[in-house]
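Q: I have 96 residues here and want to know how they pack in 3D. Can you give me a structure?
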Amino acid sequence: MTEPLPDATHAVRLAIEFLTLYVAADTEEKRMEAGHYIGQRLSGADAPDPLQVLRGQLFLNEVLLLSLAEAKGAEPADCRTWAGWWLRTHSSQLPE
């Protein structure tokens, strides 16, 4: 992973907060509650900059996907190639 931007730590923590809530939601009702909470955090007077939220999500996804590549046996030099393959493969399997 490349070095994050100076204000990226806060953005990644926000991404972790959102993902933690969503992953913990084991019913559709709880997912809706998590979505509502996330929506509230993203709107209002003290809402984070949308670009920072997106950056945080991207940094977090990068760490998770490269960790998955490593766990699946990819050599360190090949982790990004493996991650690209994984994304292409799983993208086509998403429901329309």
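Q: Anything worth noting?
A: The chain is about 70% helix and 0% strand. The chain has one domain: 8-91.
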